[in-house]
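Usage

Read records sequentially. Each one opens with the input sequence:
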Amino acid sequence: MILRKRSPSRKLTLGPGRTNKESLLLEIRKLKTIRQLELSTDLLTHVPTKMLKRYRMGSL
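and closes with the structure output:
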């Protein structure tokens, strides 16, 4: 088995995987990490809505 290190930002983008206690705890840690970034609430207000929708869908 090959173990690969993932960057912290990549870890945040990974899906939750199978539902179990460990995946739930991982999602909680990811949410805490995002909150610690203290991003501005208006960070993406200049980005067109259409582009944001495409980004959310993973098209970009």
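Summary fields computed downstream for this record:
- DSSP finds three helices and no strands in the chain.
- The chain has a mean pLDDT of 81.
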